[in-house]
Each structure stands twice: as structure tokens, then as C-alpha cells.
Amino acid sequence: MTRTIELTREPRLARLFAKAVATSAGRGGALPDLEVVRPDVKVDPAALAAYDRVCGFPLRDELPSTYLHVLTFPLQVALFADRSYPYPLTGSVHLSNRIVQHRPVGVREPLRLSVRATDATPHRRGATVDIKGQVHAGEELVWEGSSTYLYRGQKAEGEVPPKADEPEAVDGTGALWRLPGDLGRRYAAVSGDVNPIHMSRLGAKALGFPTTIVHGMWSAARMLAAVENRVPPAYVFDIAFGKPVLLPSTVKFVAHDGPDGVWQLALRNAKKGTVLARASVGPAGAGSIS
Questions:
Q1: Is residue 41 within 8 Å of residue 112, measured between CB atoms?
Q2: Bridge partner residues of 152 (DSSP)
Q3: Are 218 and 187 in contact (CB under 8 A)?
Q4: At how many degrees (to 10) do helices 45-55 and 183-191 cross?
Q5: N-to-C CA span, the chain
Q6: Largest distance between two CA atoms of the chain
Q7: Which residues on adjacent β-strands are paired with residue 249?
């Protein structure tokens, strides 16, 4: 039987992060049959406008699909903080995201958010888990998202699948984006993701990075914002994260449109050409996340 945690208000993420880290020791076992939900969520237009400014979206009465990820992210952290979740938060790596927008969502629509953990899979460096979220407006499913996390050194039942061939990221002429040193703190202020690797140079160094790095979901949002006015109202957006984006830095954004209406996107280091993230966005069709 599924156990449900219902949140009646937006949780304090800093407190949840601290709880998840403090209770990491001694975890293990299978993924719990657990769902975290938050009903009757009303969007704060001022908070949405601040997010739009940081991520490059125009101000409007519709929610960027990546902002719906921001709304569901505290539920993910509540899931990580529950002692029944078998994997420790410390050392986890955000590998990729898939978003399906079934239709645009208006800023004044009351929403029901939910997340659950699925598909614990062996990986050559540990184990991966997909955290899947849904957003309903009334009875209508309007948004789905899946975040894949790697838990280094952890285990999951089964055989390690062979490494899949990754498609070559697009390259060529692109836009140069200069990312300021405080971008991690600015995105944290509008998303609530206060992981120290994004906020503090000392915190980043303590966790193995030479300096602060930008949030992966800022990169996702900024890349989507650059082409969102050229994709249909219902779309699928996929992104895989590569090398960390150090702050401050200059990156190159490349976008190629295909004959099937699918845009191929890449974020590269402006000097070395290293792939930092690759993504695609195109018509949703029958796309969904089970």
C-alpha cells in the first residue's frame, strides 16, 4: 500500500536538506512505496516574475515548464529526507531531466503536486533513481517530470546495463552567455535550492569543486527559454548534464532546428568547446512519463 506524505504548505528547504544529510547514515534497502503530495498550490506572481528574470523567460501569465519543476523540487527533498528512502543525499549527482508539458499552465490555476521514486538501477559508478513528478490542474494532468540522480558507491538490484552511446552534441555558431559569479546565489533565491556547491566557494571546494557551479536546472531553464517561443504549446524537453558549469564563466549556447520540429540544443565551454549540457525539445505527441 502506498504511503502518502501530504504537505499543507511549502516546506523550508534548508531544514529538509539538513535533515536529509543528518539522517544519511545507515540507510539502505529497496525504494519505498511513498508519494509526497501538496494540494491546492497557488503560484505567487512576484516569485514567478523573479524566476523569469533570472532564467531569461519573458514575463507572462503562463508558467515555464521548468518552474513547475521548481514547485515540485521541495517535494523531492521531502522524499530524500524521509528515513525510508534508501540512498544518502550527500554525494548524489543530478544526471538528467525529462519534462512533458501537456498544455500551458496559467499562473492563477490551483495545482496539485506529487512526486515518487522509481526505477532504482545499477550503474557502473553506483545506482540511479528516477524521481517522477506530476502536476494536476483539477483532474487534468498538465505536466510531468522525471529527474535522474546517481548515488555514487551505492547499490541496486540487478545487472549494470551497458553504457549507452550518447548522441553528439550540436556545435557551430552560437550565442555567448557570460555567467556572473553570483548566479548560483541568485538562482537559489528564486528556486529554493540552497546546496552549498552553488552558493559558497568554500562549500563547493569542500565537496570537490574548484569554485561554485551553476545549478543544472538553471542551465535547463536558460536553454529552454532561448527557444520556447519556437516550440508548440505541448512539448517534450530532455536534458543531460555533462561537465559542471563553473562560476564565473562564459558559455556558448547552440541551437539547431530539425525537419521533425525537434530542436537540438547544447551548452559548451566558450574556450574549450567542452559539452556542459545537451538537450532537445519538440512536439509532445504521445510522450508521457509512466
A1: yes
A2: 126
A3: yes
A4: 150
A5: 19
A6: 53
A7: 179
What's the CA angle centered on 154, arms 153 and 156, to 5 degrees? 140
Domains of the chain: 3-283 (3.10.129.10)
pTM of the model: 0.94
Rounded to whole angstroms, how far apart are CA atoms 106 and 25?
Answer: 42
* Total residue count of the chain as it appears in this document: 290
pLDDT surpasses 70 at 289: no
The amino acid at 235? Y
**179-238 tens-digit pLDDT:** 999 999 999 999 998 888 888 888 888 878 889 999 999 999 999 999 999 999 999 999
Taking only the tens place, the pLDDT of each residue in 27-60 is 989 999 999 999 999 999 999 999 999 999 999 9
C-alpha cell at 41: 498550490
Three-state SS string over the chain comes to CCEEEECCCCCCHHHHHHHHHHCCCCCCCCCCCEEEEEEEECCCHHHHHHHHHHHCCCCCCECCHHHHHHHHHHHHHHHHHCCCCCCCCCCEEEEEEEEEECCCCECCCCEEEEEEEEEEEEECCEEEEEEEEEEEECCEEEEEEEEEEEEECCCCCCCCCCCCCCCCCCCCCCEEEEECCCHHHHHHHHHCCCCHHHHCHHHHHHCCCCCCECCHHHHHHHHHHHHHHHCCCCEEEEEEECCCCECCEEEEEEEEECCCCCEEEEEEECCCCCEEEEEEEEECCCCCCC
List the one residue out of 33, 32, 30, 243 whose CA is nearest residue 121: 30
Interacting residues of 52 by C-beta distance below 8 A, sequence separation 6+: 58, 59, 60, 64
